[in-house]
Amino acid sequence: METVVRELQSDAQLGVFLSSNCNVNAIASAIVARESTLHNVSGSSRRRASFTTNDTATNEDSDGLSQLEQFVERLDNAVQRIDRVISEHIGEHYATLLDQVSSVDELQDHVMSVQSSVRQMKQSVHLVESQVREQHEELRDAIQRYRNVEQCGDIVRQVLRFQQLSDRVLGSELNQVDATSMEVMVETGSSLMEDARQNEMASVALAIREMEMLVQDERFEELSVVRAKLPATRKIGTNLKREVRAALRSSIENLSQANVGDALQILFYLGDLATTAQFSVNDVIQELERKCTAAISEEKLVGSSGTNLNGLNSSNGLPSGSIVQKSGFWEALQEFFDVIRMHALQVWNLQRVLLKMVDSASGKKYMDLILAPDEPSLFATFWEVTCAIVRELFASTLSYSAAVKSVLIAEYPRMREQATRVLNEMYTATRQSAGAEFITDLLNTATEAIDAKGGAIESEIVPIAGSVAERTQLLDSMAPLYDAFIDSCLSQDCEPYTAHVSPKL
């Protein structure tokens, strides 16, 4: 085929038919026009010239017609040749063409089959989706039913447990105590002294605590069977709290660690540990303030100094009968410092028990449940408030009558010695109470309790007045009398008195 095309392209007459802009009509018209022109020119020439012979004219016409026919014949031959080449090419590649046609048919059939399969797959997917959706809804409904059954079972178990606990609380002997007996127990604070009763109170407190945990859900509390028994059980809990608080106060006053621990444990079960511990310290502070105020009140000092308080000795400026008067004053001042010592030991003992007791569930000490890590200890708060009270009380004595004030100022050196003695006694007593256990606690907490500022080891279980700061707080609280004593000595030129006074801390 390529050979035929190249031959036709090389032919001047036939090559024009292979050009891209070939116009067959124009080519045919041009050929006919040229042949007509040649025919007209030939006729005119024959008319102007003479005919030589008839054979010559006949040959010329024959030559003219053979040129046109020759072109047509060449064109027919070229077409036939092209047809023959095409026929030969088709004959040679017929099998290939048939294969390609059959492949196209097969491919088309395969595409149609795939389309049909895709449609079937889509239908299957939609069917599966609908089935899955139905099963999912059924499963969701079944799960919800089972969940409702489970919740109902939980509620039933909780109700049964609540009834069991309420029966335990309402059937306790604590509920059988009449009002008179309860008042006696609250006033005496002796209800925890018996082991059997203490165990009963702890058991009832645990039951009340579990009941309160159950009724934290408002929907559970709204159940009629629960709502009917809550008032009675909560009343028992309130009475139990009141009794245990009174017992705790009595145990604190008696410095009984065992009874304090029993009371704190029951209060922990009742959820009243932090509040009661703070209130107990406040009660101790208020009691200390009341007793200290009464101990050095002007009426008390005047009553303890006899009837000669207003008689003054001109030689030393003190009241006449000063031996009796000073002894009465001194008894009052000793009582004052004994009150401080006694109440400080009470708070220290309470704090020690709180540090020793641990909640088994959380592993935290009771003290950690009461105070935040950045809050001062109970004793530190008590000691700071106590020293402030002492300062205010001594400052108020400066407004007493001149006779009483003069004796107080004159007794300042002995008062300071008494304060130092009380500090030493408290330190010795609490250090011996801590003993080996205190040393162990101190060593165990040494790496954990490091002061952020000075790097000093701090331990909450430390003896009273074990640090210079605590000792200084109490001694500095006597500053109003110290200043008045110095002024009095300077004004009266009392050299012997100032020689015995330690420097103010």
Automatic annotation (TrEMBL):
<dbReference type="Pfam" id="PF10392">
    <property type="entry name" value="COG5_N"/>
</dbReference>
<dbReference type="GO" id="GO:0017119">
    <property type="term" value="C:Golgi transport complex"/>
</dbReference>
<dbReference type="GO" id="GO:0006891">
    <property type="term" value="P:intra-Golgi vesicle-mediated transport"/>
</dbReference>
<protein>
    <recommendedName>
        <fullName>Conserved oligomeric Golgi complex subunit 5</fullName>
    </recommendedName>
</protein>
<dbReference type="InterPro" id="IPR019465">
    <property type="entry name" value="Cog5"/>
</dbReference>
<dbReference type="InterPro" id="IPR049176">
    <property type="entry name" value="COG5_N"/>
</dbReference>
<feature type="domain" description="Conserved oligomeric Golgi complex subunit 5 helical">
    <location>
        <begin position="221"/>
        <end position="416"/>
    </location>
</feature>
<dbReference type="InterPro" id="IPR048485">
    <property type="entry name" value="COG5_helical"/>
</dbReference>
<feature type="region of interest" description="Disordered">
    <location>
        <begin position="42"/>
        <end position="63"/>
    </location>
</feature>
<feature type="compositionally biased region" description="Polar residues">
    <location>
        <begin position="42"/>
        <end position="57"/>
    </location>
</feature>
<keyword id="KW-0472">Membrane</keyword>
<dbReference type="GO" id="GO:0000139">
    <property type="term" value="C:Golgi membrane"/>
</dbReference>
<dbReference type="Pfam" id="PF20649">
    <property type="entry name" value="COG5_C"/>
</dbReference>
<keyword id="KW-0333">Golgi apparatus</keyword>
<feature type="domain" description="Conserved oligomeric Golgi complex subunit 5 N-terminal">
    <location>
        <begin position="17"/>
        <end position="168"/>
    </location>
</feature>
